[in-house]
Amino acid sequence: MNARIAVTGANGFVGRALSRLLLSQGSEVVGIVRPDVMCEPGVVTRTLDSLSTATPDVFQGCAAVIHLAARVHVMHDDAVDPLAAFREVNVAGALQVAQAALIAGVPRFVFVSSIKALADSDRGHPLKETDERHPLDPYGVSKAEAEIALQDFGNRTGLEVVIVRPPLVYGPEVRANFLSLANAVAKGLPLPIGAVHARRSLCFIDNLTSAIALCATDSRAVGEVFHVSDGDDPSVADLARALGRHLGRPARLLSIPVALLRLAGRLTGRLPQVERLTDSLQVDSTHIRAVLGWTPPVALDAGLAATAAWYRSSTNDQSRR
């Protein structure tokens, strides 16, 4: 058997897929989760009420900790002080896990961050790991602060910190914005994005997990920050068309000028949502390819096909209930 690897947030979208991959590679997976959730079959479960309660015994015998658990980005946050709430989990919580891992003798700590720690748009060129951080929302700010704090912690203590920044992640069991797009396309709803030519980097779930698993074991990853993507950046309109093709339901796209979409966003108080559709967000993932020799195992179109197949299957299952 390969190494024992701890995965915080092992019950989530990425955590489940990552657990399956690690198990298939022969690793023992220790899932660090809340008491009321389930992990993939074969995962050894250890529970925490919160990240702030992480203690060294949770990570004993592990060769690496992959930190996925986080307070995630939401469109309508009801926290009184959203930034403080994000910092409590995403910054202080991550540092507590790193501290506990260090005391337990774990050599490697892989922090799965987000491209939002860097920016919400690409400023005219694909974002590189060396670009300055300019996060815009509380989630992005907390992820950026966690990156900085963990890098400093690693430099001071010798913990081998690796940071992985994915853009939008999709695949079977996806939720949030990507699922909303699939729902709209499948239902034949008109989408006002036919004139949106902004390109968006994506990352299929299997591509992300393969990169994370490599970062947990390859000595060349130590101290690095890596952008991970499919390497094929469709426009928003082309993404909807491709989804429609795989869903067997051509996307109904309305070609409304981007300036009018932005104006409507301002008038309705939904400008941030409109900007997420109309601004380009491409990432440069050549660094991980050069340093680790990583290449995405699944091409964009194959990833979209797998996601659409899951969507059709899940909606058929629901209709039969």
Automatic annotation (TrEMBL):
InterPro entries: Epimerase_deHydtase (IPR001509), NAD(P)-bd_dom_sf (IPR036291), NAD(P)-dependent_oxidoreduct (IPR051783)
Coiled-coil residue windows: none
GO CC entries: cytoplasm
Domain NAD-dependent epimerase/dehydratase: 5-226
MF-aspect GO terms: aldehyde dehydrogenase (NAD+) activity
Family annotation (Pfam families): Epimerase
The protein's name: UDP-glucose 4-epimerase
Organism of derivation: Caballeronia sordidicola
